[in-house]
Design a protein that fits this description.
Elements lengths: L1 E6 L2 E6 L3 E2 L4 H11 L5 E5 L5 E2 L1 H16 L3 E5 L3 H9 L8 E2 L2 H8 L1
Parallel strand pairs: 2-4, 3-5, 4-6, 6-7
Antiparallel strand pairs: 1-2
């Protein structure tokens, strides 16, 4: 479902599926728990993701809460037009920064 690449405490999460929804959000959250550590920072590369439902949005918010409790942070990048519109509609982009590309997102967390 995901592949994670680490450089120090900065983890980039790549999706190997095109959706985060009620069919896989629990697996996603469970996999992310494995990678969380104190002060970890995450970049979620959404380039492959075409659809996110309310369960998927909830998973991202839950992960954000857990990461921030550990003193870390997370941002997103590479979201297509439909995902960016969704984030704006539900105002997720006010809670989680969304960048156009991965380099920009990684610099924001450096």
């Amino acid at each position: 479902m995901i592949r994670v690449s680490f450089v120090g405490k900065l983890a980039t999460v790549f999706f190997e599926v095109d959706h985060v929804d009620s069919s896989n959000y629990k697996e996603f959250k469970g996999m992310m728990q494995h990678y969380m550590a104190e002060n970890a920072k995450f970049v979620f590369d959404l380039g492959a993701v075409k659809f996110i439902d309310s369960s998927g949005l909830g998973a991202f918010l839950s992960i954000l809460r857990d990461v921030r409790k550990l003193g870390g942070d997370m941002v997103m990048c590479g979201a297509g037009a439909a995902i960016r519109i969704l984030f704006d509609l539900v105002q997720l982009s006010k809670v989680i920064q969304v960048f156009s590309d991965r380099d920009e997102a990684e610099r924001a967390l450096a």
